[in-house]
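Supplementary notes for students who missed Thursday's class. We covered one full example, reproduced here. Read the sequence, then the structure, then the short commentary at the end.
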Amino acid sequence: MKHLRRMAAKLIGMFRRNRTEVDLTREIDSHLTMLEDEFLRRGMTPKEASRAARRAYGGVEQAKQSHRDERSILRLEQTLQDVRHASRARRGILALRWWQ
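Structure (token representation):
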């Protein structure tokens, strides 16, 4: 049952990608802000605190990509990307033939 719920959540997430991405960015920003506040309380300047927070958190983009990979169904997403690419290529070929 747990696997079914997880699969359903992943499928729903594929169609709500923009919303999920915004939520992910907000969550990471929230963590960075908390870390910055902690470093500011320790007496760092705002610039130093921002750098230290990013260093302490680790790679922001790597964390985002790891989260995306965890919530996605990779094979299905890759297949959908291939289908979209093929349909764009087909439209382009048809448009070229029409102009000739």
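Commentary. Residues 2-73 form one domain. The longest helix spans residues 74-99. If anything here is unclear, bring it to office hours.
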